[in-house]
Amino acid sequence: TALANDKVWHMHEAAEQDLLEQQVSLMGELANAIENHQLEVQYQPKLDLKTNRITSVEALVRWHHPTRGYLSPDSFIPLAEKSDHIADMTLFVLQRTLRDLSQWHAAGTEVKAAVNISARLLTSQVFFEAVRAALAESETSASHLIFEVTESATMADPSAALRALEGYRQMGITISLDDYGTGQSTLTYLKTLPIGELKIDRSFVENAHEDSSDALLVRSTVHLAHALGLQVVAEGIETKECLDFLREVGCDLAQGYHVSRPLPAPDLLALCQRYTGV
Ligand code: C2E
Ligand code: CA
Ligand code: CA
Ligand code: CA
Fold it and tell me: How much is the pTM?
């Protein structure tokens, strides 16, 4: 009835209001999270399928909230992206990553590390200069740094994205096209981007060993990437079957729980040093 519908509607409104208030307060807290040492960076290895060595890692941010406990990046990054907090958070991740890279290198482990760059930051001139400054202060060379940029981030403003990527490439940073397959980029557009790596999204990889259309997409992406001179990474590898399939189709690198979960920096170093492959 109309009355019952009205009640449901008000409950719905109240729930939305709650969510909004929660998000506003979380956003305010994020501003202090860095200073209060609540953010941590963990690293997930990318396994080189030809040599069976860990050649690079992806930096993934973690928020240990004092009252809400562990928060997944999916719950606060979209919020951070709506404000300037994304710039501070990403700079924190970048600086931490550069510092950890120099420690791993000092310990004799020659890995590279990737940092995720949101669409909004990609074309920011202020952020660009901050990256240059961070690299200048660091002992780590830009050649050890990878920026993961999603396919959709480059599509928002293709010509601005292209200019920014070209600038980072000139700085010596490798660009990796993240979540590949979920956007709408054409082959012609892909050819114009100054990228060195293509990351196939987990949604295509997870069933590729048993789903023929996903298998086709993965196979053809590997061929396409190699034809363009790019390395291919498959993300979200959870099983041996999946890993075997990727080896068989000639994929270069694999990332996922079957290789390793994201790890704190010291654990990552230990894993690299004793790694014998899966
Ligand atoms: P992403 O860039 O696609 O990162 C991969 C996500 O998949 C990570 O989730 C990782 O922990 C998870 N993952 C890795 N292997 C597996 C697997 O085998 N199975 C499954 N089911 N999941 C796997 P996480 O750490 O929760 O991050 C989620 C997203 O948050 C990331 O997706 C990325 O878009 C964003 N993110 C994380 N850290 C940062 C950051 O520092 N900056 C920005 N801008 N975004 C970040
Ligand atoms: Ca990523
Ligand atoms: Ca990804
Ligand atoms: Ca993904």
Answer: 0.93
